[in-house]
Design a protein that fits this description.
- The structure is a homodimer.
- Chain A is about 15% helix and about 35% strand.
- By secondary structure, chain A is an alpha+beta fold.
- The first copy, chain A, has one domain: Hotdog Thioesterase (Thiol Ester Dehydrase, Chain A).
- The first copy, chain A, has a ten-stranded antiparallel beta sheet with strand order 1-3-4-5-2-7-10-9-8-6.
- In chain A, about 45% of the residues are buried.
Chain lengths: ~280, ~280
């Protein structure tokens, strides 16, 4: 099998550079649904009082580093069999609007989930002075790569309580949302090319999991952080089902055990697209 | 007055560089309303059969050159008093998807329209080999600068015939359309900042004239060029009234005198936003 634990586990790649600028922050914000709400102007407008990065932007500078991991020895996977399964993001410091960022990454864990393998790739994004800005763990599902007798890994946790959600936010996505989100760096054809999507078994291109993630983080930010990114500390999600661009995302939230448990459903089909999710926020 | 004809007329600026790449073409296409119509995939997707530039993209590489004209001697204008009045674009050659473009510009005409002056700035955009790709004439209105006893200039022409339009295309704009279009280079706060828009006398930020222009050119391209940019040769428009982001643009078209006469109305308010407009196309 293409995964060789003895070689892959702990493998590292050298830091990769990402040049940040205000247009990239604005483009990302539009990619995850920011529109003309006056309270959101700071995410899409560079003039005073000044541009601010959305917390979930933290996955973007790490993306090139993530991609480079698929070349490491012992981890030569078939791209067609790969799906984004989980995401964890910690925000250590507010992002400088412009300047170079450097992201190093390593293979943190490889779990055996039966038919699939869950590969956890950890990345740390630092600024030019070496200060840690973001830590990500990308949970990548490799279909057909499980069953090697390895550790199953921990249960996902963050199950919603029985009661009705404390808060619910609905956000429409655009039909062209994936076309727009792709400009932030994830150019997988699955999200834009109808023929490719058909080959992968979908009626039409599906939305990026991390695009849905961005919408959900905005919902938490609005409801539990007063829309202030400095209060948003970390977030963890599982991507359960796909979303089609143009569907409306319903983010259900509960304040529980000192964190915000949430899930995202598609309004049109009632599918849970994001589950086992929680954000740590400052009150 | 800040316009000194003897100095300004014929003044030139050195060529300014614009670096073209596929993401800029895609971003522009999304900025002028391209969505998931399969026939439009070539404007927003870089994989084979390959990306193609929308004809109206031709105004984008000239934009930095246009901005630089406001520094030439005899043309020190108050930016707050400036409005985009007219636009002419000729396409001489299909754009290379990536590479450097160079645009030189000069003050072509300054007409006295009574209270206002109409300043025509001509620009030529060439590729690295020096071949002409685009020729633009930006018609800039300087409010309060007319009445200097100058030439009135020609009548705008391109009046629609009396009969009903031969073709009508409706295209919705997004509430966030101006935020998105601004990323192609026109960062005038009038189109994004509610406070600035209020100072300029508008209820809310207005759409870029050249954004509406992009939608209208797409309508002509679809109806008279089989959506093939190689058949679109030139276009001339007058910006008559503002459009608010979120409004639906109704482009009415007539085939007349060997060209496509058109105008654009806002569906919601019935205002003619683009008038005296015509495109030259190959059958």
């Amino acid at each position: 099998m293409p995964i060789d634990l003895s070689k892959a586990l702990g493998a590292e790649t050298p830091p990769m550079e990402y040049e940040c600028n205000q247009n990239k922050l604005i483009l990302y914000a539009l990619g995850v649904g920011v529109s003309t709400d006056p309270d959101d102007l700071k995410f899409v407008y560079e003039n005073p009082p000044g541009l601010v990065a959305l917390p979930s932007f933290g996955v973007v500078p790490a993306f090139p580093a993530l991609m480079s991991m698929f070349g490491v020895e012992g981890l030569e996977l078939n791209p067609v069999m790969i799906v984004h399964g989980e995401q964890y993001l910690e925000i250590h410091k507010q992002l400088p609007i412009s300047g170079k960022l450097f992201t190093g990454s390593k293979v943190l864990n490889i779990y055996d989930k039966g038919k699939i393998a869950l590969i956890e790739l950890e990345s740390e994004t630092k600024d030019e002075s070496g200060e840690l800005i973001y830590r990500n763990v990308f949970g990548i599902i490799a279909r057909g790569e499980g069953g090697f007798g390895g550790d199953k890994g921990p249960a996902p946790g963050n199950e919603p309580p029985e009661r009705k959600p404390d808060k619910v936010v609905e956000m429409p996505t655009l039909k062209q949302q994936a076309l727009l989100y792709a400009l932030s760096g994830d150019i997988n054809p699955l999200h834009r090319d109808p023929n490719f999507a058909a080959m992968a078994g979908y009626d039409r291109p599906i939305l990026h999991g991390l695009c849905t993630f961005g919408f959900a983080c905005r919902a938490v930010l609005k409801e539990y952080c007063g829309n202030d990114p400095e209060k948003f500390k970390s977030v963890k999600v599982r991507f359960s089902r796909h979303v089609f661009p143009g569907e409306t995302l319903v983010t259900e939230m509960w304040k529980e055990d000192g964190k915000v448990i949430f899930q995202v459903k598609t309004k049109e089909r009632g599918e849970v697209a994001v589950s086992n999710a929680a954000a740590e926020v400052l009150e």
